[in-house]
Amino acid sequence: MRKWTWIVVLFSRLILNLGVRVTYPFLPAIARGLGISFEHAGLLVAARHFMGLTAAFWGILSERKGYLRGMLLGLSALLVGALVVSVSRSFSLALIGFMLIGIAKPVYDPSVQAYASERVPYSKRARALGILESAWAGSWLLGIPLSGILIAHFGWQSPFVVIAGAALVAIMCTSQLPDVTRTIPDPSDTSNPTAVRPNGAASMEGKPFFILGVSFLMLFANENMVIVYGAWLEEQFHLQVQELGLFSMLVGMAELGGELTVVAVVDRIGKRRAILGGLTLTGLSYLILPFCRGSLFLAFAGLVWMFYLFEFTVVSVFPYVSELVPSERGKWLAFNFSALVVGRMAGALSGPWLWQKNSSLHTLATLSLLAQILAVFLLLWAGTNRQTPHA
Q1: Superfamily name and number for 208-382
Q2: Do the two domains 3-174 and 208-382 of this chain adopt the same fold?
Q3: Which of 9-23, 185-199, 239-253 has the lowest mean pLDDT?
Q4: Which of 14, 262, 310, 318 is deepest in the core (most CB within 10 A)?
Q5: Which CATH number is 3-174 given?
Q6: Which positions ≥6 away from 289 have C-beta within 8 Å?
Q7: Is residue 334 exposed (0-12), middle (13-18) or buried (19+ Cβ within 10 Å)?
Q8: What rounded mean pLDDT belongs to the chain?
Q9: What is the pLDDT of residues 292-309, one digit of tens each?
């Protein structure tokens, strides 16, 4: 893709991701601004997450109407949603805004992944999508400190005003990008998992569904651990909010490291190998983490390692999915997005429940490790009949 196209899509994803991530550290400020309890404000985040389940519908629509239109629709939802939140004085109005922001990501993300996949050969696609996904970590490292300054000086709604303005700029720039022409895989490209199949991969004997199971289990395992790490650190080491905030910056750097590692190595070692290795190492990080409770340094190191490995693995999945069914890559990328959302929601339910039962990280780690092992078996099973098993 041209340099200007990269600038536009990275800027758009940075703003879109900030619209999602700004909620986490500043939810108490949002609750105070709306005059509601923190628990009530949590419903705003839950409703936004729930909208991610609509990704499959938007993926089918983008296949029919075009990936560029899907990108514009997602940015438009972000613009309207951020504007609604910025003028909200009540829970009900804020809920509408959060739901629109929740729609923006499942519309835009699969569309832009499919858009980039159409313009970049499979042999270089992990590099391309890894660069694209770096906007996830970038939104945290750049956007959260800026949002904190804005909230301190202008109130809790100010970041959403900036997000709305930036979304408008992104819409205008995106509308000037060239649309893509659908391609048929080159049979001579042996790095392509569907190159040996005529017309892409019209029949995969149901195998795309296996990777959806991998994505679900991977997100479930991670969210089951991540959702309680703050409580674990507070209980084990008596950390304060400021110290947890400092650790969040380390998390952002770990995520960026995982994304850049995808850029550097995944096309060379193979997408499926990268996913398999990432699943295995991330599972081991879950196993080891409970034994790091004796030292704050070890606990931080274990968590950073876990975040790094998880980000590497989940980003490696995207280029792999993008070529399972090339004639419908937008749809399958959207299905994968929905699988990730469902896994995250399931982990968000199991983690706190298990923590309240016994406050032991060992129990959560065991469950996450079992889910990770099952994901490895699903991935291996998906590859048993592949003609290019190391794609």
Answers
A1: MFS general substrate transporter like domains (1.20.1250.20)
A2: yes
A3: 185-199
A4: 262
A5: 1.20.1250.20
A6: 225, 299, 302, 303, 306, 361, 365
A7: buried
A8: 87
A9: 988 989 999 999 999 999
